[in-house]
Amino acid sequence: MIHSREDVTQLIVSAKVQKGVTWKEVAEKVGQSKEWTTAACLGQMTFNKVQAELVGEIFSLPNEAIAWLQISPYKGSLPTAVPTDPLIYRWYEVVNVFGTTIKELIHEEFGDGIMSAIDFTFDVEREEDPKGDRVNVTLSGKFLPYKSF
Asked: What CATH number is given for 5-68 in this structure?
């Protein structure tokens, strides 16, 4: 019996390893970006019925898991306030070191507001470099100004 969306995520990750598929391959079958599809498979987004059924086929999931994939998840997947995984910690470090700079530059360019994480896309690509390949991450969120009332 499946008790939570986290149980479904564990089923997916386990099946991914067993089947040797990539997130990119899953995304192509689902018809969404690899970034969004991976987030959805890891429990951070909601699949529609057709997408959930495709993911169910790819990972040989039971019907109960397919139903869970269509429920709005509790977002935020870090197990601790300060991440301990080295790769995720580096993102935490980026925000700690450059967060105020990013905030200042967004406010200077756009005014008082935020970058949406709802109307949002991101892309992760490998950038070949003779000195060592680089990780190229592009974040794109709609600017939402604060309203006066």
From this structure: 1.10.260.40
